[in-house]
What we know:
Number of strands: 10
Oligomer: single chain
CATH superfamily of the largest domain: P-loop containing nucleotide triphosphate hydrolases
Largest sheet: 5 strands, parallel
Helix content: 40-55%
Amino acid sequence: MSYTVLARKLRPDRFSALVGQDHVVRALIHGLDHDRLHHAYLFTGTRGVGKTTIARILAKSLNCEKGVSSDPCGECSRCREVAENRFVDLIEVDAASRTGVDDTRELLENAQYMPTAGRYKVYLIDEVHMLSKHAFNALLKTLEEPPEHVKFLLATTDPKKVPVTVLSRCLQFQLKNLAWDAISTYLTKVLADEGIASDEQALELIARAARGSMRDALSLTDQAIAYGQGSVSGPDVATMLGAVGRDEVGALMAALSSGEASQVLPLVSELAGRSADFEEVLGGLIEAFHRLAVQLSLGEAVESDFSAEQVQLNYQIGVMGLRDLQVVPDPRLGFEMTLLRMLAFAPAPIASASSPAQPTTSTKKGATGFGATSPSAASAGAKAESSRPNRLAAATPSAQPMPQPAIDKPAPVVKSLGQKVAEQQPWFNLASELSLSGVARMLVNHCWCLNPEVIGTQDGNELRLMLDVAHDMLLSDQQVQTVERAVQAQLARTIQVTMTTGTAQASTPAERNAQLAAAKQSEAEQSLKSDSTVQSLVAEFDARVEKVTPIDEAFPHLPNV
């Protein structure tokens, strides 16, 4: 006798045997038991989740000799004929091969005639979304008002391609992708019934590789039985699928936590030698980071050197790398670059308080990563810095200054807010006149001037600005050079602009503009409150003032009088 594959041998013949589609089964059982039958059903879902199987069980339930029931006997001639796919009143059509309007018209010509042997004439149309537009139009009228003895069972993997006019005439059931643990549990029972040895790791790999499809899981199980010569083991299934288990993912996690590429790349070479599916490997790594993130969020004890921030970063890098695998010339290259990216962007370890402080460079230009700079790169950077003026001063000194002898200094003069604003007025005027836009304009608006006295005179060849530290992300050499060119053009002389960052010492143009705007707004509101005409209108018509806009904002081109 010829061998029957598991996917056909174990095809459910009643609703109780279905796995993972309880929400659909419950609705159908109640409808059958209470005689609330619709004339058209549409089953949607990915491949191998039970669309056609449910349709055939429903056809059997409708035509069982013992009556319409959610539990057909399976023994009468009609049930046996449906199971063997030879029941004359079950017309099963593959819409992918019969897409034309003539095929649909021919199919529906006999719908008006009574069933030959059964209670209902059932039309089961698989992959219904493949029908042409004209074929759908030919189906519509019969689908909306079919004879009482006709039932339509439609199945599709792509309901978005089905016209809404058809969808509105059907009861729609969305079948879910099966959870991998549900598939694994079912496979355990199947292999136990078949007398085939298996282990948990193998069944988990098969269930995950099936991606929610029970038919795919059973087909992979058949392949695994043949590959393992009658048994299903984890190493055999991993080799067959090119997948990796938790041990390999754990080794990759440990290598990444070390921060050394010399420990990561040999593992990649080993996976390549086993012809591993790098998309599956990266998916397993992403799942591992997800589990670790959940454990850290819940405060559970974990054996990992990754911080919560690093776990989140590596998860995001892995997700982006998974997308890149679709476009890179070789999946191994994309996988290696993803792991190297995780190493390159790993936060640098924080030095302990007892360790000597190392000199660091704080600059907005030339930063290449979070790691330390090599000696050759540092020397090259020093030469480049010596060949051009330094436009960006460090916000904090890199080393402590030498102790100086105590000198009596005069007490600092505390300036009032009005004095500070008056001193900054030349800078406010200059900033408003500069021909700038975009980031350069934002940069200028958040600076205050350390030597505003050079603006109104010809003395001094340097304009020193300080940027509020809250906006230091705007600072770059390119933007400083743009500001310098605008200042030179406005002052009509050569002057160098340097910028540092620090905490607020005076008002910036942005703050000054906000203060002036608030003052204008307050003045305008007060003017309306004291206007007798406005007050009389409010009183007479029971009105209210919704919004007040100063005249120079509402009419910017109005001439001053």
